[in-house]
Design brief:
Layout lengths: L4 E5 L2 H10 L4 E5 L5 E6 L4 E6 L12 E6 L11 H9 L2 E9 L18 H8 L5
Parallel strand pairs: 1-4, 5-6
Antiparallel strand pairs: 2-3, 3-4
Length: 131
């Protein structure tokens, strides 16, 4: 009830499908410097950015008190994950909640994407945030 949702997705068609499948009226506006597009619900409670995840800045809707990472961490190359976590950490309020979905599998049989994320990887990336 009262939540404002901010999301990031690289594919504009996925955002269009989200709004259409949920019968939500929306507008699309260009981001400054041609960085992407902003899809905004008519009631101004949903703001979905179509852009490079690494271009997110604090004025993209932060500070945030909750994150649901449903597929970003597992899509990012291992060497880029610390930068991703730093960006999100910079957007969080002190009392945040964070849900991250990951995958575990035998990397000798499949190497991704989506990429394997171990418990150790999660601790290394998020340990200082106490997630």
């Amino acid at each position: 009830m009262g939540h404002v949702i901010v999301g990031v997705e690289a594919a504009g068609t996925a955002l269009e499908e989200f709004f259409e499948e949920n019968s939500i009226k929306y507008t699309v506006s260009d981001l400054p410097d041609g960085a992407g597009s902003l899809f905004t619900s008519e009631d101004n409670r949903i703001h979905l950015y179509c852009c490079d995840l690494f271009s997110i800045k604090s004025d993209f809707g932060g500070p945030m008190n909750g994150v649901w990472d449903r597929g970003a961490l597992v899509a990012i190359n291992k060497q880029d994950r610390p930068r991703y976590v730093e960006i999100l950490a910079s957007l969080l309020t002190p009392d945040f909640c964070y849900l991250v979905e990951t995958l575990e599998y035998d990397e000798t049989k499949y190497c991704g994407p989506p990429f394997f994320v171990s418990d150790k990887d999660l601790n290394d990336l998020y340990g200082r945030l106490y997630i």
